[in-house]
Structure to design on (750 residues):
């Protein structure tokens, strides 16, 4: 027996024992022998990638030695090891440019969260009860292999479904290749605030199935139709950096910025001019601006090329978008519209952005095409200061994995509910929570309960993984090989990659490596179709194909700087076969609920802290005041002061909102930054099962949404629900605003 084996486990006494909860020997922690060398007191900077939104920011991690609480061989103990201490933006990375947003900063808590799943779990109680027992990795993998073998033996490989959030990198590609080799359908990807409508519009307008990048640093006039591009939309860190240059980066030039939206966002609060417009009419406003520009001959009526064809297509309809007609639809006065149009035309280069709620209507595609046409008319497509597309590294065609399949989750739920024998016999889940992030009307939870076997790779028990029979917990991103190919935010192609920055704290395993091991252990192994032993081997082979620096190879260079960036060897052909030059037919938005019974538009919005709710378990983000309301640790319902006066509602009073699909109660927040006929609510709270910090806190507005979708793409029209609102009582103390009603509670740390 060598020294390492001999002192494998020793009981900690003295100072280290203070890490345990008390002096009871049963609670004493075990000190494990370190399995890596560290230099005391010396920090090392390692690269990683923020996993918390599609932006894909490059991260620098400060790593130092420290005592960390770990799980080894089923026992909890303490180990001296190199651990992540602080995250910052990687200064060399083209997206983050040395910056991170608050979510990125808080992402370190994913690793140290006290409610992480520390080892594989097998369900013991009724489904959804949260009763699991710990099992070994050997047992967990053997069980998953046996389920897959049973499907293969029955020739029923299509009964496997894999559901994940969209990923632009090779992790998604690995999943897709394993599924294809097994004979299953491609992975289904779902994201509440997916951008399928805008990608589709860009495909139709410009031949690019991709989100745009705006050269804000050189823009002189910017109009945004609902895009919270400084807070939650697309690539916020890159957009913040460019916005800073747009406003202050050029001596003597400060671009004007106008925001049109029904509820003031963090971005709207920064605008020179904020215009509330009726929900679903942003496209009409864009075409009204275009009308004035064409009627006054402020721009040529043709921009040439595909974009020119687009605007010519619209031109036939433009005479109808007179300022008077635009006023009827949007509420913007003719004088204001004309002034905006003249300023926009004079502000060369000018650009128009659309995003967020403006696209979340039944006519979302029409709205996006209208704004694309305005950009084409302004000559800003592909021009300095305008709209462009980030070149794509597109390793192994993996960018396609970053696209969502908006109809697929709903169709899967419908199919499961309607068939006597569920079409899916085995459902695998990776980093997605559709039970929380889909409307109750889709009945996703009920549908998933019919699936005989559910396997999750979750790091936490959330509403969807709570239904799993087997949980094979993934490493945190800081413990894993990570990669990503951002589709937007830079002027060069970016393929980020990073090695683990620290050893795993718990008995977790990286999902891609587990999948590869399962592929090898199948009764009929997938063999040459999935040729990699490990995920980093796949990354290595893919990155080796990129153009190399003069004095090295691309793989080594990419690891050294946190990724590869430059011009891809071959231009990406993002143009799809069905791209065609046509404007969508003008479409009125449809809303669920009759106006006389449901008088308010309901606007759930991506919260700066929680986005779609997937970061609500991070206590730093719960503690972070909302930038507009200062709300923390709670939900609230935003209403206009006029509406509040009429209904005799004050901030803090409990109100009930009801759609045709459900009701919820939360405290009111009276705000002038919202139109009188609109009621808004941040998404993110209202979890039933999502760690000690998020469970049982606030309400989930997604639950009561109508199952309407954009007519062409099938994307959820999450801004198309009408509601009624009633005051049901005075303050119940649940609204926490910064500096005011701060409750005494251990979880607030005060
Ligand atoms: S924008 Fe924020 S959350 Fe998104 S990747 Fe960057 S740091 Fe992470």
């Amino acid at each position: 027996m060598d020294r390492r084996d001999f002192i494998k486990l020793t009981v900690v006494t003295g100072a280290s024992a203070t890490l345990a909860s008390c002096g009871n020997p049963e609670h004493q922690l075990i000190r494990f022998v370190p399995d890596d060398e560290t230099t005391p007191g010396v920090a090392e900077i390692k690269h990683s990638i923020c996993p918390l939104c599609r932006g894909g920011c490059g991260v620098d991690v400060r790593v130092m030695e420290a005592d960390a609480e770990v799980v080894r061989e089923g026992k909890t103990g303490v180990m001296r090891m190199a651990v992540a201490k602080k995250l910052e933006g990687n200064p060399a990375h083209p997206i983050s440019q040395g910056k991170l947003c608050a979510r990125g900063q808080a992402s370190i808590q994913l690793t140290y969260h006290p409610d992480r799943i520390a080892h594989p779990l097998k369900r013991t109680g009724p489904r959804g009860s949260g009763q699991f027992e710990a099992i070994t990795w050997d047992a967990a993998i053997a069980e998953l292999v046996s389920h897959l073998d049973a499907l293969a033996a029955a020739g029923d490989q299509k009964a496997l479904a894999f559901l994940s959030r969209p990923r632009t990198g090779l992790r998604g590609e690995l999943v897709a290749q394993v599924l294809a080799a097994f004979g299953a359908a491609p992975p289904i990807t779902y994201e509440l605030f997916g951008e399928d409508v805008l990608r589709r519009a860009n495909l139709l307008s410009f031949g690019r199935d991709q989100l745009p990048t705006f050269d804000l640093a050189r823009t002189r006039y910017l109009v945004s139709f609902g895009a919270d591009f400084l807070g939650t939309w697309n690539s916020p860190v890159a957009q913040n950096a460019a916005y800073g240059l747009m406003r202050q980066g050029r001596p003597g030039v400060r671009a004007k910025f106008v925001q049109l939206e029904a509820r003031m966002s963090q971005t709207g609060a920064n605008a020179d001019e904020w215009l509330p417009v009726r929900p679903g009419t942003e496209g009409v406003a864009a075409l009204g601006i275009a009308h004035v520009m064409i009627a006054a001959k402020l721009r040529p009526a043709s921009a040439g090329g595909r974009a020119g064809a687009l605007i010519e297509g619209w031109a036939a309809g433009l005479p109808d978008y007179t300022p008077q007609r635009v006023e009827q639809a949007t509420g913007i006065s003719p004088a204001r519209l004309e002034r905006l149009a003249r300023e926009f035309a004079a502000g060369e280069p000018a650009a128009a952005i659309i995003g967020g709620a403006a696209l979340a209507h039944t006519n979302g595609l029409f709205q996006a095409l209208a704004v694309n046409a305005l950009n084409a008319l302004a000559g800003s497509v592909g021009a300095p200061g305008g709209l462009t597309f980030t070149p794509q590294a597109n390793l192994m065609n993996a960018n396609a994995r970053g696209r969502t399949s908006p109809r697929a989750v709903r169709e899967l739920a419908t199919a499961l509910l309607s068939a006597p024998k569920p079409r899916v016999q085995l459902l695998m889940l990776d980093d997605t929570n559709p039970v929380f992030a889909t409307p109750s009307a889709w009945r996703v939870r009920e549908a998933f309960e019919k699936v005989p076997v559910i396997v999750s790779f979750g790091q936490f028990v959330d509403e969807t993984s709570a239904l799993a029979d087997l949980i094979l917990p993934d490493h945190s991103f800081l413990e894993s090989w990570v990669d990503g190919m951002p589709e937007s935010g830079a002027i060069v192609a970016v393929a980020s990659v990073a090695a683990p920055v620290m050893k795993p704290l718990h008995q977790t395993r990286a999902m891609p490596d587990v999948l590869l091991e399962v592929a090898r252990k199948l009764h009929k192994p997938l063999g040459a179709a999935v040729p990699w032993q490990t995920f980093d081997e796949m990354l290595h082979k893919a990155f080796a194909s990129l153009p190399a620096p003069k004095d090295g190879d691309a793989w080594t260079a990419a690891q050294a700087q946190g990724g590869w960036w430059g011009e891809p060897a071959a231009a990406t052909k993002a143009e799809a076969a069905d791209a065609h030059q046509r404007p969508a037919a003008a479409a009125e938005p449809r809303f669920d609920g009759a106006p006389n019974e449901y008088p308010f538009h309901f606007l759930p919005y991506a919260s700066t802290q929680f986005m779609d709710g997937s970061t609500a378990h991070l206590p730093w983000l719960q503690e972070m005041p909302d930038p507009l309301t200062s709300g923390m640790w709670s939900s609230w319902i935003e209403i206009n002061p006029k509406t509040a006066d009429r209904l005799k509602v004050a901030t803090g009073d409990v109100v009930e909102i009801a759609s045709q699909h459900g009701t919820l109660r939360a405290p009111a927040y009276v705000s002038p930054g919202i139109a009188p006929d609109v009621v808004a609510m941040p998404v993110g709270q209202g979890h039933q099962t999502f760690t000690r910090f998020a469970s049982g806190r606030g309400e989930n507005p997604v639950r009561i949404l109508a199952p309407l979708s954009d007519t062409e793409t099938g994307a959820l029209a999450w801004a198309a629900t009408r509601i009624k609102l009633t005051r049901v009582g005075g303050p119940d103390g649940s609204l926490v605003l910064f500096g005011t009603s701060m409750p005494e509670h251990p979880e607030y740390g005060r």
In short: The domain at 600-731 is CATH 2.40.40.20 (Barwin-like endoglucanases). The chain is about 25% helix and 20% strand.
